[in-house]
């Protein structure tokens, strides 16, 4: 009869298992250390690249966007510092971009707050860029500014710059959010959310140049008169998103208002979706 393994065999097996475990742990630790070293080396090279092309990154919005995309694809946050950047704003901080972005945040808030009385806190993102660029150029449209060679300069603020600023503003919890409606981005700068009916009305307004006509709303939604009135009234009275066009209604001269007994009389213009230049 064959004997089973003795104590010495079990002891050797235990030693082998322990050795394999130690070797595996050693290899894993070595790999992690090597990976960390490689990442740190790459970060240092990235910093050298950013410093070499500092002017291009600051002055050229397209180059700046590509640099940001490169950092994002590699999982590197340019706002996070490394040993070389002393932890003060990371790569962006070394380039002076943090100062640029903080200034841009102030201008973004200025534009959103100053226009709330007209649009109820909802404004197209491209309109924000246009107004911010006017602030940065002393009240002139960027299209009217030419460089020393006589060429028209492109705007120095991009959509990606504004979206980064919105992320910076997130900790303030002041309600700055982005909504995409009919492929157009809008910035909502008040904490209140749009309900489903208001979102549908805004979507319709985006296809009509900003105008909401009861007949058109009914044709596209199938809503009844009461639901249309409530939706339009909320857009005008509750959120301030739109204005009533008195001239679009054969209007009772005694009423003096486009909202009579909670009924909207006349077309409503959603300012954020209206195609006109605000001076």
TrEMBL record:
Any one GO cellular component localisation term in the record: ESCRT II complex
Swiss-Prot/TrEMBL GO biological process terms: protein transport to vacuole involved in ubiquitin-dependent protein catabolic process via the multivesicular body sorting pathway
Signal sequence segment: none
Similarity comment: family membership: Belongs to the SNF8 family.
Stored PANTHER family: EAP30 SUBUNIT OF ELL COMPLEX, VACUOLAR-SORTING PROTEIN SNF8
UniProt protein name: Vacuolar-sorting protein SNF8
Origin organism lineage: Eukaryota, Fungi, Dikarya, Basidiomycota, Agaricomycotina
């Amino acid at each position: 009869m064959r004997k089973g393994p003795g104590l010495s065999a079990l002891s050797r097996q235990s030693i082998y298992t322990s050795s394999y475990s130690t070797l595996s742990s050693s290899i894993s630790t070595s790999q992690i250390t090597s990976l960390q070293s490689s990442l740190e080396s790459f970060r240092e090279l990235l910093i050298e690249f950013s410093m070499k092309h500092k002017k291009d990154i600051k002055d050229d919005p397209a180059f700046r966007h590509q640099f940001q995309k490169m950092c994002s694809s590699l999982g590197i946050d340019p706002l996070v510092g490394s040993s070389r950047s002393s932890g003060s704003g990371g790569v962006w901080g070394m380039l002076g971009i943090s100062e640029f972005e903080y200034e841009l945040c102030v201008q973004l808030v200025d534009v959103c707050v100053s226009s709330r009385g007209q649009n109820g806190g909802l404004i197209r993102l491209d309109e924000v860029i246009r107004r911010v660029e006017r602030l940065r150029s002393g009240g002139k449209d960027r299209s009217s500014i030419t460089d020393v060679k006589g060429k028209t300069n492109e705007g120095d603020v991009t959509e990606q710059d504004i979206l980064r600023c919105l992320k910076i503003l997130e900790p303030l919890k002041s309600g700055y959010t982005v909504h995409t409606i009919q492929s157009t981005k809008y910035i909502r700068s008040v904490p209140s959310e749009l309900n489903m009916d208001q979102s549908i009305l805004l979507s319709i307004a985006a296809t009509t140049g900003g105008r909401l006509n009861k007949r058109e709303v009914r044709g596209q939604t199938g809503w009844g008169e009461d639901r249309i009135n409530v939706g339009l009234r909320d857009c005008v009275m509750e959120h301030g998103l739109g204005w009533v066009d008195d001239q679009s209604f054969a209007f009772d001269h005694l009423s003096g208002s486009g909202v009579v007994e909670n009924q909207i009389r006349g077309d409503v213009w959603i300012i954020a979706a209206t195609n006109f230049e605000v001076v």
